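Dear all,

This email documents one entry for the complex benchmark we are building for the journal club exercise. For each entry we list the sequence lines for every component of the assembly. Then comes the predicted three-dimensional structure of the complex as a token string, followed by one or two observations. Please use this as the template for your own entries, and keep the labels exactly as they appear.
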Amino acid sequence: MSGPREPALLRVEDLHVEAPGRPLVRGVGLDVAPGEAFGLVGESGSGKSLTARAVLRLLPRALRTRGRILFDGADVGAFTPAGLRRYRSGGVGMVFQDPRAHINPVRSVGDFLTEGLRTVGGASRRRAESEAVGLLEEVGVDAAPRRMRQWPHELSGGLLQRVMIASVLAARPRLILADEPTTALDATTQEEVMAILGDLRRERGAALLFITHDLDLAAAVCDRVGVMYAGRVVEELPARELERRPLHPYTAGLLRARPRIRGPRGRLEAVPGRPLPAYEAPDGCAFRDRCPRAAEVCAAAPPLRPLGAGRVACHFADEGAPGTDFGEDVGEDAGGGAPGEIGEEDRRG
Amino acid sequence: MAETGTGAPLLEASELRKVFRVRNRAARGREEAVAVDGVSFRLERGGALAVVGGSGSGKTTTARMVVGLEAPTSGTVRVEGEDWSHRRPTARERRRRGSVVQMVFQDPYSSLDRRQSVRGCLEEALALHGAGRSGRPAARRRADALLDRVGLAPAHGGLRPGALSGGQRQRVAIARALAADPRLLVLDEAVAALDVSIQAQVLNLLADIRADTGLALLFVTHDLAAARHLCDRVLVMDGGRVAEQGPTDDVLAAPRAACTRRLIESLPRPGWTPRRSIGRADPSAAPSTDPSAGGPGGGPHVPHPTGIPDPGRTAP
């Protein structure tokens, strides 16, 4: 958040989401610049998926929301039904965790892909079909013409997730919103899907809001990462900083709790307790019951304040605070020649 | 029973093979899908073996054959020297087997009865394995001891699964498995769905139980890092076959099989640039003529066996 930035493509301002008597999201604010990849990381109940759904105005009616969502400067909350349809069909594309739950099982892959092209884009059947085949090829689906005639249940999860991404591309969105898009996939397929998302994002200049529980993955593919806990953003940092020198004790705890394929074996340093949803969390700092550094001052909620290259909500955080340098984990085999590449993508330089 | 076959390994799988018959529209009829092909391994008493692989590698089918949920098409599973795979067990034998091998599944939501209290669930499992009728004070004490063993409070015993978090539910599933006092625990992606901070707790819990009681673990996972923390030995599967097996540290330090290297390289890490192994589909390339080829979706797509197979027709 330091230095001059382009005006945000997506801005979430002081977002609150509440079920009757139960706060779920408590004042989330974030900016995603055009073309930027922003990772929103959190455990169960942190409010990350609710935030994503609020961006799309897809929350159930029973939930009350406050705050503003601005897309390209326009207030999403004030969209007319027609404006909302345009926003969802062309402004933002969504990729969900379980493509099987979001792709109509009784219609062919071809029908699924051409529907939007024909109804929104007004293309003829033939043109829509050839465009859909092109999109499938772009996301690495082989034998695309045959896939068009297949049914969702005939495709593996990895393949179906590509179909989902192809359908998002068809709408040429400026923001891709991906909620745990690879969580149901194995590591190899995950790499494949993230590579496809990355390529397409760069080529088409789309921004990415990437929701995940996986800190490693978010840090590896995003420019900036926000960490959510109990309905709030507790830390926001450039991805590389977050991996090496997290500011918030919760982030540091998560990083230490991960099993690693190198380094010391044996007992993991688990974070005690369990992640709490906002309505169960204590007043003041929501993490204080689980925090090794908690003190009396934590009874007062720490504000999200600028620090270094990011922001943090912790009374104790100062630069390099939790005293954990995770940098040593960058193995010598960290991918041939890769280290420079992320820097080049960091368009905010 | 414990003394039969002293000297034999706790678990020995030889040349396990499982073929599912699946419907395939494109092939106009039924065809065979080989899920597991010639898998052999041993697990000593108190040992911990990880079975690692991507989707469709056959790791879950292998685990299901070990516990008897699937009958192998050919090959044998021996537990403490006794052949478990060539005869349909009687009800009494099934119960006896349950006191040797127990299984914990990925999703405790679907593996626990959501209308039964945690204590009721544990007391039922204890009663089944000869620990006295449920509801009696002795059974209640043992159920509370199990709760304590997995890090839950007696107060959790009165709750139903729906009132518990995912991590707590998985602890209940582990406690239920421990009620039988087994010698082998088969874990099928048992920590995959848990939050990072909880996953570490459950991995530590499993390591502690193993250290304290000598319980052997067969840990089926796609997560190499979790496998490394829990298991001394690892078996990597690919396309239904054993790609390599050996001490975990050796395999990770110097992987011999291409698929192991691929699994290691696909882990996100600082400086990682995800790669497309297949690249873009080349429209000029000849289309695949193999109807079963799943294409670039993580190897050949072996249809997931659950729900599809017809064990009666494929059992020997």
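Observations: The radius of gyration of chain A is 21 Å. Chain A touches chain B through 70 residues (CB under 8 Å).
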